Amino acid sequence: MAKTIDLTENVAALCGEYPELVEILVSLGFTPLANPVMRKLAGSHMTIPGAAESKGVPMETILGKLQENGFEIAK
C-alpha cells in the first residue's frame, strides 16, 4: 500500500500516521521533531511546507527525500 503524504495535513498528524517520517524530517534539519513534546506542540500547528519555509529548506529537497523513502505526495 502506498504511503501518501497530504501536504495540507499538520506534521504531528503525519508523524502519527507514519512514524518513520520523524527520522526523515529530523535528517533534513527539523531537529525539534525528535522530541515527542515538541512534535505534538509545534507539529500540530505546522505543515511540511510551513516548516520548510521557516527553516529555509527547499521543498524540492523535502519532496525528493520523501519519494526516496517510498512516499507519494497527494495531489
Task: Please provide a written account of the structure.
It is a single chain. The protein has one domain: Orthogonal Bundle (SP0561-like). 55% of the residues lie in helices and 8% in strands. The chain is built from five helices and two strands, in the order βαααααβ. The protein has a two-stranded parallel sheet. Helix 1 (11-17) crosses helix 3. 19% of the residues are buried.
Write a concise keyword list for the protein shown above.
75 residues, mainly alpha, SP0561-like, two-stranded parallel sheet, 5 helices, 55% helix
**Total number of domains:** 1
CATH architecture: Orthogonal Bundle
- Give average pLDDT, whole number: 95
The string of secondary-structure elements, in order, is: EHHHHHE
- Residue stretches low in confidence (pLDDT < 50, at least 5 long) are none
Main sheet summary: 2 strands, parallel
Number of helices: 5
Distance between the termini: 17 Å
Helicity level, as a percent range? 40-55%
Query: Which fold name is given in CATH as the topology?
Result: SP0561-like
CATH class category name? Mainly Alpha
How many DSSP E strands? 2
Structural class: mainly alpha
Overall 3D shape: globular
Rg value: 11 Å
> Strands across the major sheet, in which order?
1-2
Strand content: 5-15%
> For the record, what is the CATH homologous superfamily label?
SP0561-like
In brief, what are we looking at here?
55% of the residues lie in helices and 8% in strands.
Q: In terms of topology, how is this protein built?
A:
Layout: E1 3-5, H1 11-17, H2 20-27, H3 36-43, H4 48-55, H5 59-68, E2 71-73
Parallel strand pairs: 1-2
